[in-house]
Design goal:
The complex is a heterodimer of chains A (338) and B (247). Chain A is mostly helical and 338 residues long. Chain A has helices at 3-34, 38-60, 70-89, 103-125, 131-149, 176-199, 201-211, 213-218, 223-249, 259-272, 279-297, 301-315, 320-337, and strands at residues 160-161, 167-168, 171-172, 251-252. Chain A has one domain (15-257). Chain A has 13 helices and four strands. Chain A is globular. Chain B is α/β, with parallel strands linked by helices and 247 residues long. Chain B has one domain (4-245): Rossmann fold, CATH 3.40.50.300. Helix content of chain B is 36%, strand content 26%. In chain B, the strands form two sheets. Chain B has a six-stranded mixed β-sheet with strand order 6-7-8-3-9-10, sandwiched between helices. Chain B has a four-stranded antiparallel β-sheet with strand order 2-1-4-5, with helices on one face. In chain B, helix 3 packs across helix 4. The chains are: A mainly alpha (338), B alpha/beta (247). Chains A and B meet through helix 6, helix 7 and helix 8 of A and helix 2 and helix 3 of B.
């Protein structure tokens, strides 16, 4: 595309991404300044769900595939970290391998396992489209959910407490601040990866397929394998987010992988804006913070929450990202005039 | 024997009780512009869809360059050199003119499992795409989104996408459908230029355009080709006049 368009895309993508990362990076300092470490805990949760929502949006916003099994992948990532740590703590080998509390091993393990499962789930689910895709991914999510409940050895219904200290190589990341920056680095990497992917040749095929499959086939591309690859990438990144959640809160439970959590991730993406890569990160932040604030005000917070979401989605068709861009455009417009 | 690029042999396709394609045989010569005319409902678009591979025939064979492609799916036929412009414009609303042509170029260049480099800044895609866009006269609109194009421009873009595929055979399904007189004349001129470089199957209702562009014309009635011949032969053929031209 021509140069002006390139500059426009920089303004549209790079600047907001950097602003989001900078704002998040500043939260621990704010927490220290006002002496409220709880803020870091919230910010960590925001970052982790931002990773999952940005990852999910790769298939929802760019692939046109609304998946309801991403909480399943989120949970799979969490359980890989949790189960490996359990075997480490109890000094009991898992089949032929020993347990570990080192993320340098358990993260790649989570990536590998989620990639394999996502390949199978994707290959089956992508034979369908539209509402059928929605339903079949929902079914897979419930399989994962009940699978986790069936893990009696690892807590079943009650979830799995991580008793050992989580490390990353030689680095102890049980420190709240250190862990936050680890998660933030993963979010930055996720935004970079997804940002590159959507503008690459791969991304062009994926995006075109979501809007007009007939056209893509007519020029000589079978969209199926591209959709599958996108689904796997998205699932793996979501599993990494789940692994971080488990490591950060030293706990993972089936509740983290219920189908309603899959719905939450879709809401985060739509709330933030599916048209830009960074949109769902804003959506995740709004979701986590609203949930927290509203639930402290009233026990009927979900009613207010629902109303707010409807209001935002109806008034801003591109989600919160639209609002941000409108404000930004107006500002820079004024600056030009002034 | 003349150099045949496409041979269709006894093609059959039924929808329920309707024989949309009925024992259809046809040969298209390399480099010729072969028009297919026929009354509404004769099965022209159904035939094109079977050539492209969107529809599977019930019986019969389609041979491209001596290779049986009857069983090949549409995307593979595109790679083998068949490009189709759709009667009802088929575009990606939020892709620009150039994006569409670039997508066709990247499809031609092989697999698209390339994740890192920005496709819109890739000269290997942009340069040939721009060439195709210029050929159809849309250069000034290359950054316009498909949803903002006029009807005539969208028709031109359909053609640009097909050209960007560098096909061996162009299937043009009513490229002038819904165009005004002025756009129609411009499109005829454009097609006249294209026919020098491509083998073309042209479906068109504008008889003036058909008779000026076509090297040969086949007349399709009720899914069957009743006559193939040079324009002047078809124009005066009594069967054709009775079946189609109607006067």
């Amino acid at each position: 595309m021509a140069e002006p368009a390139t500059n426009l895309s920089r303004l549209r993508d790079v600047v907001p991404t950097l602003l989001i990362l900078a704002a998040l990076a500043a939260t621990p300092m704010v927490a220290l300044a006002i002496g409220d470490p709880f803020i870091v805990k919230v910010a960590t949760r925001v970052v982790i769900f931002a990773i999952a929502a940005v990852a999910l949006n790769f298939v929802v916003g760019y692939g046109g595939l609304v998946s309801l099994c991403h909480a399943g992948f989120f949970g799979i990532g969490g359980y890989v970290v949790g189960i490996l740590a359990w075997h480490d703590f109890n000094a009991e080998p898992l089949w032929f391998i020993s347990g570990t509390s080192d993320l340098a091993i358990s993260l790649p393990a989570a990536i590998l396992l989620s990639a394999m499962i996502a390949t199978i789930v994707g290959a089956i689910s992508l034979r369908t489209s539209g509402p059928y895709f929605l339903m079949i991914t929902l079914a897979f999510n419930q399989m994962f959910y009940y699978g986790a409940i069936a893990l009696q050895k690892y807590g079943g219904d009650d979830g799995l407490q991580i008793m050992s200290t989580i490390t990353l190589g030689p680095l102890d990341v049980s420190n709240r601040y250190r862990f936050f920056y680890l998660a933030l680095a993963v979010l930055a990497l996720t935004l970079l990866l997804v940002g590159r992917f959507v503008d690459s040749r791969f991304g062009m095929v994926l995006r075109a397929s979501s809007k007009n499959e007939t056209r893509v086939i007519a020029v000589g591309v079978d969209p199926w394998l591209y959709r599958l690859a996108a689904f796997v990438v998205s699932a793996v990144l979501t599993a990494v987010a789940g692994a971080l959640l488990a490591a950060g809160q030293q706990f993972i439970s089936p509740v983290d992988m219920g189908w309603d959590r899959s719905g939450d991730l879709v809401v985060m993406a739509v709330l933030g804006g599916v048209g830009v890569v960074w949109g769902p990160a804003i959506g995740a932040a709004a979701f986590v913070v609203l949930e927290l604030v509203l639930s402290s005000w009233t026990t009927h917070w979900q009613f207010v929450f629902g109303l707010l979401i409807v209001l935002i989605v109806v008034s801003l068709r591109g989600g919160l990202a639209d609002l941000a861009q409108t404000l930004f455009a107006r500002r820079s417009g004024e600056a030009k005039h002034g | 024997m003349a150099d045949v690029i496409l041979a269709v042999d006894r093609l059959m396709k039924s929808f329920g009780g309707l024989r949309a394609t009925n024992d259809l045989s046809l040969e298209v010569l390399r480099g010729e512009c072969h028009a297919i005319i026929g009354p509404n409902g004769a099965g022209k678009t159904t035939f094109i869809s079977q050539l492209q591979g969107m529809l599977a025939p019930d019986a019969g064979t389609i041979t491209l360059n001596g290779r049986d492609i009857t069983g090949e799916p549409a995307h593979r036929r595109a790679r083998l050199g068949i490009a189709r412009s759709f009667q009802i414009t088929s575009l990606v609303p939020d892709f620009s003119v150039l994006d569409h042509a670039a997508l066709a170029v990247q499809a031609r260049l092989g697999h698209s499992f390339r994740f890192w480099k920005n496709a819109r800044r890739d000269p290997a895609l942009v340069a040939p795409a721009r060439e195709a866009v210029e050929t159809v006269g849309l250069a000034s609109r290359e950054n316009t989104l498909a949803r903002d194009l006029s009807h005539g421009e969208a028709r031109q873009l359909e053609l640009a996408i097909a050209i960007a595929q560098q096909p061996k055979l162009l299937l043009l399904d009513e490229p002038m459908a819904g165009m005004g007189r002025k756009d129609g004349v411009a499109m005829t001129e454009l097609l006249a230029r294209l026919k020098r470089d491509y083998s073309i199957i042209l479906i068109e209702h504008d008889m003036q355009a058909v008779f000026s562009l076509a090297d040969r014309i086949s007349v399709l009635v009720a899914g069957h080709i009743i006559k193939t011949g040079a324009p002047e032969v078809i124009r005066t053929d009594p069967d054709v006049r009775a079946a189609y031209l109607g006067h």
